[in-house]
Amino acid sequence: xxxxxxxxxxxxxxxxxxxxxxxxxxxxxxxxxxxxxxxxxxxxxxxxxxxxxxxxxxxxxxxxxxxxxxxxxxxxxxxxxxxxxxxxxxxxxxxxxxxxxxxxxxxxxxxxxxxxxxxxxxxxxxxxxxxxxxxxxxxxxxxxxxxxxxxxxxxxxxxxxxxxxxxxxxxxxxxxxxxxxxxxxxxxxxxxxxxxxxxxxxxxxxxxxxxxxxxxxxxxxxxxxxxxxxxxxxxxxxxxxxxxxxxxxxxxxxxxxxxxxxxxxxxxxxxxxxxxxxxxxxxxxxxxxxxxxxxxxxxxxxxxxxxxxxxxxxxxxxxxxxxxxxxxxxxxxxxxxxxxxxxxxxxxxxxxxxxxxxxxxxxxxxxxxxxxxxxxxxxxxxxxxxxxxxxxxxxxxxxxxxxxxxxxxxxxxxxxxxxxxxxxxxxxxxxxxxxxx
Length: 437
Known about the structure:
AMP-dep_synth/lig_dom; eight-stranded mixed sheet; Phenylacetate--CoA ligase family protein; GMP Synthetase, Chain A, domain 3; ligase activity; ligase; alpha/beta
């Protein structure tokens, strides 16, 4: 097993001794002080947000914990207030929509320098799983300049790896033919989309695909297990979000969690209720600070994602910290009673373990009726699995208790999956359609 190439990249780039975690931490502290000073000088938002911290010098990560969090609604309210450069120096703008209303849009801005930092990370992160013998298919948006697919392709070209960007999966049959025609052996894509491709066009997977990289959404364990065992395929995971500059961390050959982009980003795990930093090994909310962002730096940005730092070093032998696989979003749940929540990740692990299922949608309506709309290729498959699936769903502890107390009702319904899959980068979620009081 080779050590993650992320280590050599970061050690060489910032000029520290290999294996010296103290030097890396000092680098991060220095960068934190720089980004605070830079943001307060040029960003209207941080000039106001940090006005009570004029004389504060961050000498330790403990000192840094006194800095207030940046929240998603801060960006939604006025994203231009975050800019530290003139709008004419922005080369890429990404609009993130959460529910289709303009009031819930976030706009994230990048300069050319910011995009180059992401390319650099992608180049070394992708080296964890591919080399010059590989041919990579990216099933993510790539038509626009600075999009994730565009940056990935540029990164792989710099290390002489053949890469094709086809956009989010829409027509599985066409993609399967492309895989065979181009002898693709590695795919980068969205977890649920690659599960769909592997189940609809399994022959193309079986004959060609040796490794995949899952990104942009929660990665269900059952998905990893199925693709690994069924196709003898290595399944890597990447963690990132647009606000980070797409890239955050990637797994190495140990497949034991993410090695983080520590020279560009500083990560914390906090208790989502108290806001206090938790110990390694404890799960909490991921918070990050950009260390090298030019256009739109973010300081202590709360992601809403759940993870933990490992208490042990990675088997690959790196001195870098490892973050556990992300468990999804804190808010990707529905409340069914006081302190009782159903999380989508729990439904994922059960529903997606049934190979007849291509996708599903879960939502709750008035009367606490939970509808689970199962998508299959034919109606026969729905009837074949629905009874057994329902029995497993009812064993989820919070659901089991709520059913005994007659708090909820669960209904399985069915939709047929067309030959064209919906083209969407929207993260999957469990929906609440109940009227608000």
